Amino acid sequence: MKKVLITGGAGFIGSHLCDALIEKGYKVTIFDSLDRQVHPEGKIPDYINKKANFVKGDVRNYEKFKDVLIFHDYVFHFAAAVGVGQSQYKISKYVDTNICGTANLLDILVNTKHRIKKVIVAASMSSYGEGMARCEKCGIFKPELRNISKSGKRDRKFWEIKCPKCRKIARPIPTTEQSPLSANSIYAISKKEQEEMSLLIGKTYGIPVVSLRFFNVFGPRQSLSNPYTGVTAIFISRIKNNNPPVVFEDGFQTRDFIWVGDVIKANILVLEQDRANYEIFNVGSGKPVTILEIARLLIRMAGKSLQPIVTYNFRKGDVRHCFADIKKIKRMLGFKPEVSLKKGLTMLLDWSKQTDASDGFERALKELKEKKLV
Ligand SMILES: NC(=O)c1ccc[n+]([C@@H]2O[C@H](COP(=O)([O-])OP(=O)(O)OC[C@H]3O[C@@H](n4cnc5c(N)ncnc54)[C@H](O)[C@@H]3O)[C@@H](O)[C@H]2O)c1
Ligand SMILES: [Zn+2]
Q: Topology of domain 3-368, per CATH?
């Protein structure tokens, strides 16, 4: 029986992957520090598969990580501090966990006898910065990151990406794996470094590495009490507590939401197909949706009469648009997202009914304000 290690396997995506791998006959170990921001009670979540072997440990602890890692055939490296805004003021924590944690993984693989046959790294769409855009007149371009100091503008033109040559409003287009990266937060930089370091060491020593750039993953088990990440989870915890979701800018910024079950399918495909080795794949739905629409849909589906609050404020580090071009993973591995946004949100809301959600949004917003990030 092949043995798989999932770092960060007690979290949202890792725990679903754990279930799917066990279902497929793999033996799974979870290595997770049970970070209090994600797991406020500091205990193993009830949803963790009873057949999984759970080891509480931190990827920053080289010796402990090594003792567990070397007995596995494959590793999914998902352990990370996750939060764009928060990474801008908890810089050491993000660099330590994400970059140094990955450095430990690679250092162990290079310097210790092991039997790891493939490393799969959770990278992120955030490393692209702004998604690609097209000006009707001047053609395709990679937008500069916006640096907006003024706020309060209701005019959509104010917020949109403009062509650097003619200043006309440009249209967002799908972002491919070849698009230049321009990370706009410490989190995004750390995810980019994780990917680059892993591919470099993998290629140098002949250890197959695959990097999956996840877009906005949504689904059950995303912490409803962590106000720093996961816009659907943050909105649901607001709505459950009868508070309106708060939307930055004018609400027409777009993201690419992908159902967690579809993300798991992509992970299994790259694990089981050799042609994925040393490649980078976008894992998204390929469909942009506005943040305001997500807020309205969730309110309506939850049967509440709330109205989203649109702040017309810029949150530093946010991009206007980014959605995936998923042709590469479709063509090379036969990946196809199957769950629509509406179906996924329905399943997510059903799950959220039996789940506690403490709304920490105001606290997180206060922190961002104190740090002058909004
Ligand atoms: N959720 C998304 O939309 C998304 C998008 C792009 C990339 N990703 C990446 O996917 C991976 C999984 O994300 P998620 O949404 O499941 O996050 P999550 O916060 O639910 O899970 C992360 C897990 O890592 C654990 N962890 C944190 N620091 C650790 C450490 N030092 N040592 C060991 N474990 C530690 C946490 O306790 C948690 O269980 C992350 O690497 C994240 O950057 C997620
Ligand atoms: Zn132009």
A: Rossmann fold (3.40.50)
